[in-house]
Structures are given as C-alpha cells and as structure tokens.
Amino acid sequence: MTYPIIKTSLTSQSNYNLLSIASNSLTNLVSKNYLNTSNGLLKNSSSLIQNTPKSYFSIKTIHNDLNNTQELKVKPLGKIHHTILELTKINNNYNPNVHRVVPFVLNGVVLGVIPENVFIQLKKYNKTFSRRLRPFSISSHRVTFSEYIDSYEKRGRVMNDLLTSWRDANTFGCLKGWRDEVYPVFDGNHEIAFNIERSGIALFGFRAYGCHINGYVEDPETHKLKMWIAQRSFTKQTFPGKLDNIVAGGVSFPFNPTETAIKECYEEASIPLDISKQVVPSGAITYISVEKRGISTDSQYVFDLKLPTSFKPKPNDNEVEGFHLMEFDEIIKRLKKNEFKVNSGIVIIDFMIRHGILTHSMEENYLEILSNIHRPIPFPGPNFIKMKSKK
C-alpha cells in the first residue's frame, strides 16, 4: 500500500490546515470550524455528530449487585436509546470536513494528526529549546522531527521527554493516567519508528492497537449462543462501571495481538492457558474517534473464544467488578441503552454480524454499519514480526 505524502502545495494560507482522512487519500479540505476538545464533537457538524448528546459516555452505576444479571443496571447519561448505526457513528465520529488537525509526518509519510490545542502546546514546548536544538520541525501545515532526531532511540526519547514535561505541568488531563507502558508507532515501511507512552498517543492521533476477546458459550441442546460480559471496575479511570468484553487490552510493546490476548485472558478473567490459547483471530475493527483526550485512531484486533459451559470467569485484578452471562437479546437492549463502553460494544456488534445474530434482513443500515466498524485508516500499519528486533 502506498501512503500519502504531504506536500506544501496542499496547504492553505491559514495558521492551521485540515487534513482530510478519506478512504486511502488525504485531500485539501479546509474548514473554519474548530476542534471541540471538551466533548470531541462540533456543534455545527452536518452529520449524525450534530445530534449526539455531549454526555454519551455513562460513568455511573445505579445498582451494585453483581451477583444477579437481571439486577445489573448501568445508568446511561444523555440519550438513553440508540440505533445500532448511531452506536457505530458515535465510535467513528472523526469528520475531516469539520475537525481541524495538523499532520505529523516522518520521511514524507503521515503517521498521525494533531488536534489544534495540542499543536499550540507543542509549539510552546519546542520554543523552550534553542533554535539549533529544537526536537521538532514545525510549520503551519505539518510537524516532523528535526533532522538530528534520526533514529528509533532518539525519536522515542524526544516523545518521552515531551510527554513527561506535559504530565508534570498538568498540560493535558489524559496524562494523569500515565501507564509506564509504551505503544509502537510504525513508519511508511511498516518498521517501528518509535515508542510512545500509552496515555499520550491520542494527543497525536497515532495509530493504536488493542485486542478484544469475545468469550461465548454454546448451549449443548439448543446451540444458542450466550456471551460473558464484564462490568468494569467503578474505580477505573476510563469508563468506570461500563459493560465490556470479557477481556480487552492495549497491544503494548513488545507484544503482538495474540500474545496480548492470551496474557490479558489470565490477568483480567482468570482464564487458564489451556483455554486461552484456543483464541481464534477473527479480524479487526477500525475507527477514528474524536474524544476529550484527543484523536483515537484505533485498530482493535478481535478474537473469539468458545468457553466450556462449566467455566466461570473470575476477576484477577482490580479492573473488573464481575462477569455476567447474557443472552444476545439482553445484550442488544443494553447496547441500545448505551450501557457498554463504546468500542467494546462495536466489537460485540461485529461478533453478532459474523455469527448471523445481526443480519441484513434485520437491520436496514447493515452496510453502513459495516463501513463504520471497518474504516480505512491511511496511516502505516504494523509489522509485529519486525518489531521484535527492537525488543
């Protein structure tokens, strides 16, 4: 795949330029609108984004009884009923016609997009260095590393120093969740270009990778499928109390998606290795989501794991309150009531489509749903085999 190269001829005279992310190209679409970083949506968007309530992330639970699935209730905030299509659009809400960003470029290839508020802070940080030692080369239409920042190690140090400075100065709230865990960023040759602290990757719109496991059981008599659903800890920094996949986690350096899936199975749900190693890679969902923390350009690797009917997952860390075995009629109802962490709900929608639970004869927006959960992303993707050499 050939990745787009940003040229100065594509830029306008404005201080900031709009990078249009389309199927496989970058177009010169200029907008007068500004990125709303408080809720990630623009009031004057002409798409569904316009009608999406600001508080579409529910963070509270009105019932704490986790022993009875029927009593499990998650209080939604704002709009309490969504169509399946609306759910996918909430998750995939980046609109190149309205969101103003500046591309981050390496060797002529765009690796990510920087929201306007981050771009302003990046310029301030860069000016704290003497001109000769500035780590970034910044113009109104692009950001790249300075020429002397020319290796994997140097680029990683520069990004770590930058985010550490912002964290210590409380510049961006997302850095309060510092993980000491790094994500890989890949270049136009699918080589790892540098690592970046996980909590700061959305500030630059770099591609991030996760894995989600659909843990399900099949009734031996009726062959009807049910799915184990987790409820996130009420103390988690992100989406506390929301419903979730049985297991999910970010793919951090130096692990690949399958290694991450197996590791997370034990850490989050006490699933032993003899079961977790049976995970079946089942594709990925891709989306670009504008959020308070920045722009999440995500590829979530999806795994299906058929569990024995006798197995019951148990929390093994402080990230999960409990697990509940649900029929899909109930899952769909809770999805539409906005009780799920958004991208986890999309993974379950993908599962239902692949297993014939949600079909084109049931859903008039079937094809549009598919396009919203498999959005083409025009940034370089990973080569996890080559990544091992950086370990």
Automatic annotation (TrEMBL):
| Nudix hydrolase domain span | 208-348
Stored PROSITE patterns: NUDIX (PS51462)
Superkingdom of origin: Eukaryota
Its Gene Ontology molecular function terms? 8-oxo-dGDP phosphatase activity
Q: Known PANTHER family for this protein?
A: THIAMIN PYROPHOSPHOKINASE, THIAMIN PYROPHOSPHOKINASE 1
Q: What is this protein called?
A: Nudix hydrolase domain-containing protein
Record organism: Anaeromyces robustus
> In the record, what lineage is assigned to the organism producing the protein?
Eukaryota, Fungi, Fungi incertae sedis, Chytridiomycota, Chytridiomycota incertae sedis
